[in-house]
Amino acid sequence: MWCIGYNGPHKEGGGDPGFFKSAGELRGTKRDLSEGGIRIPFIAKWDGVVKPGTSSEHVGAFWDMFATFAALANVRPIQKKDGISIVPVLTQKKTQQQHDYLYWEFHEQGGKQAVRKGKWKAIRLQVDIKPNGPVELYDLSKDAEEKNNLAGKYPGKARELEILMKVAHTRSTLFPFKNE
Fold first, then answer.
1. Is the Cβ–Cβ distance between 165 and 136 less than 8 Å?
2. What sign does the dihedral 154-27-106-87 (CA atoms) show?
3. I need a labelling partner for 114 at 20 to 30 A (CA). Which of 89, 104, 123, 165 fits?
4. Are 119 and 93 in contact (CB under 8 A)?
């Protein structure tokens, strides 16, 4: 089996993501938490198992690979991890477990957090100087380009995802936000 992942177009080494529209219509590049920086295709080839031409709408994350490879090797991970095995979606044999939500954070450019739950995604920028600053809210089922911030229209949903950011964040002495 082999698989291909990608984590957003980048500007390193003089790259110009806009030249070939590497992120399509999506906003952002690598290390952004908008969809252009984190939404990626996952392509798998596994002769006799993954049927050519099939696709899935499963939403996963890179951290699912550890659980997936452990399941394929028929070993148990030593400790609980955030990832879930995607073997069921690859083999189309069982119901695929879903994430309750996904959480990202970056400590560059003032600190950033994002959480996705179902079709909803919230992003908070400038976490270092505004740890409780406003979140942007997007309905990815209608707005994958993240052009329409719906936080004002759906304050309850924005607050729900903001709470998930606090729950999911693990304080780190190695990579703290400046306000921690």
1. no
2. positive
3. 89
4. no
Domain 102-168 belongs to what topology?
Arylsulfatase, C-terminal domain (3.30.1120)
pLDDT (tens, 9 = 90+) of the chain, 180 residues, equals 555 555 667 777 777 777 777 777 878 777 788 888 888 778 888 899 998 888 888 999 988 999 999 999 999 877 777 899 999 999 988 789 999 999 999 988 899 999 999 999 999 999 999 999 999 999 999 999 999 999 999 999 999 999 999 999 998 888 888 888
The encoded tokens of residue 80 equal: 């609980």
In angstroms, the CA 158 to CA 167 distance is 14
Q: Is 110 exposed, middle or buried (0-12, 13-18, 19+ CB in 10 A)?
A: middle
> For the whole model, what pTM was predicted?
0.87
| Tokens 């304050």 found at | 155
Domain spans of the chain, in order of start:
102-168
Place of tokens 């409780």: 132
* Strand ranges in the chain using DSSP code E only, listed in sequence order: 2-4, 43-45, 102-106, 112-117, 120-125, 136-139
Q: Which of 84, 87, 114 is nearest to 99 (CA)?
A: 84
Distance CA 117, CA 171 (A): 22
